[in-house]
Amino acid sequence: MAEFTMELNDEQKEVRDWLHGFAADVIRPAAAEWDEREETPWPVIQEAAKVGIYSLDFYAQQYFDPTGLGIPMAMEELFWGDAGIALSIVGTGLAAVGVLANGTEEQIGTWIPQMYGDVDDVKVAAFCSSEPDAGSDVASMRTRAVYDAAKDEWVIDGTKTWATNGGIANVHVVVAVVDPELGSKGHASFIVPPNTPGLSQGQKFKKHGIRASHTAEVVLDGVRVPGSCLLGGKEKLDERLARARERAKASAGERVKNAAMATFEASRPAVGAMAVGTARAAYEVALDYAGTRLQFGRPIIDNQGIAFQLADMRTRIDAARLLVWRASWMAVNGKPFTAAEGSMSKLFASETAKAVTGQAIQILGGNGYTREYPVERMHRDAAIYTIFEGTSEIQRLVIARTLSGMPIR
Length: 409
Ligand SMILES: Cc1cc2nc3c(=O)[nH]c(=O)nc-3n(C[C@H](O)[C@H](O)[C@H](O)COP(=O)(O)OP(=O)(O)OC[C@H]3O[C@@H](n4cnc5c(N)ncnc54)[C@H](O)[C@@H]3O)c2cc1C
Prior knowledge:
Layout: H1 10-37, H2 42-51, H3 56-63, H4 70-81, H5 83-102, H6 105-116, E1 117-118, E2 121-122, E3 125-128, E4 144-148, E5 153-164, E6 171-177, E7 187-192, E8 199-204, E9 215-226, H7 234-248, H8 252-256, H9 262-292, E10 294-295, E11 298-299, H10 304-332, H11 341-368, H12 375-382, H13 392-404
């Protein structure tokens, strides 16, 4: 009984080819323009909505694929097209997953459709956790949510930063402190509905890469949301806080055993898959170029110095994909991440994307350094993968703590 297979099934291949077609025909041709404009590519998001790629249905189908490969496959293909545009397309999905994972059925049914809007009037959503003084160090978050029992409302105050789609989103998911004594265990997530007074966009960042994706500060000034906007509900929150207070009494050593937090381990491979998409895109351009560019009367790929680089690039990309697929498979099958395999996949894939896109520039020579060719954009885009969803240093920290059980700093 040989059940192990490395092959995608027919349905997955069909979805992959369909996504690849959209990435090649719609996303890639628009990439340079939206990178220069540094604006959200609304018409491309609308095209994605028309064909069903920009929708909860599509995202949920991939998310619940029993092999675990639905999301990594989709991410790789879309980000192969262009990272900035693809992030504009999947950014809403990342916020929606926060609601899918922690929300009640009613919250899922109410808010996720409003995150996407409809084909004629597409909307986006934002997930706001990072703050100016709480990036890697999530526990030092200051945005505060206080419960007003008389009105059954939460009052949220604080400043979020780096929010993808922040300020332009129809629905914002905001993480805030509900019990400052508990560090990151005292956080909760809230829906901020469309047009809620007190929520405004701060500065929009001008970025190095993924410039078609909107990144901005979000200011929350006395924002009031109904009790029903607390994801998961108050009863569940109170139970969770009570458990966290109990656990806070346990030794520091005990806490280190849980260094690989299952939620992040499950979501990080998706970012790894984005990185694989960008790396593969740059590698393909470089392979093609190396076969046609003549110097000294022969294609540059005839030189081992170039050919071996391409061999290494492809080897790293395939290895990255395998790590991503393993972690995604583990997540869907409920396997414990005893070696922080999700963080491993994100670390390796993002470092691969940075290195491979840099090598692609080198292989294209002067052309690689210009905006006439896409690899310089891909290199700028790739730099994000080692930063967001936990920097490479933080991935190493999580892996090392998980392996050793020690409170490594
Ligand atoms: C384009 C973009 C989009 C983003 N989108 C979102 C979003 O939608 N929602 C959201 O909430 N956040 C988002 N982020 C935020 C992102 O997750 C953070 O930037 C990231 O977590 C790093 O935080 P920081 O920028 O404050 O860096 P810092 O935490 O200040 O880190 C600075 C440097 O110090 C290193 N460092 C920090 N602590 C340690 C340590 N203990 N050991 C070793 N090295 C350490 C880091 O690795 C890094 O190299 C986005 C960021 C960007 C740039």
